[in-house]
Amino acid sequence: MRSRESLEFGHEDRKQLYEYVERHGAVDPVDARKSLDIDPVGFRHHVAILKRDGRIAEIDGTLRVTIDAGAEEEYVSEDLEFHIRPARQEDLTGIVGAIRQVAEEKTYIEAESVADEVDHQDALLRYNELESRMFFVATVEDEVVGWVHLYAPELEKLSHTAELTVGVLEEYRGHGIGAHLLSRGLEWAGSTGYERVYQSVPSTNEEAIAFLEAHDWEIEAIREDHYKLNGHSVDEVMMAVDL
């Protein structure tokens, strides 16, 4: 499914089924049918139509919203082999853990808020009439070691923009993982129709600012004393890149 196409379903039960799957991330078909109180024949019909239209898929016995985000890619850097792929619902715990570990450095406030939001919801990926949320992950031996996250409210005046966070666990930095994650996230954003991607970091995160500037991001504005870190006021650096 193209992530920003119009959400039209043609039947109220079909719409409710999609929304149920989207809200829960991965659902058992029997549980979904019972929760929605749809007769078995009608339920199977609606599932078939949603599958045909590329809105949902059945994976490992569960129904999930489908987002066209490409395939898994393999990379080798010196003595490290890692993979970058679209995130799956099963990655939720690993992603939240990775974000929280990076956030412990007290240099990535926006990422910490992403972890809080995801941790309090059932679904990792979102695509509904109010918001879109997409993740890609970097894995080493199937463990999440980095992420890139894109979020966009489905508002007409902001429909061309998306917010991005990206991070890699400290022990896996220096292998190009962050650059590959950033590239993958921006490639998806551009192909999906976004024109500008932005993010904000504390001015104390000089490494992140230098990393983004090296990849053609620009500082758009600075909000003085926006953060309070360890009892000290810290500026917010607002950065963006045009696609």
TrEMBL record:
Listed transmembrane segments: none
Record keywords, A-Z: Transferase
Domain N-acetyltransferase: 82-243
Pfam families: Acetyltransf_1
MF-aspect GO terms: acyltransferase activity, transferring groups other than amino-acyl groups
InterPro entries according to UniProt: Acyl_CoA_acyltransferase, GNAT_dom
Superkingdom of the source species: Archaea
Name of the protein described by the UniProt record: Acetyltransferase (GNAT) family
The species this protein was found in: Natrarchaeobaculum sulfurireducens
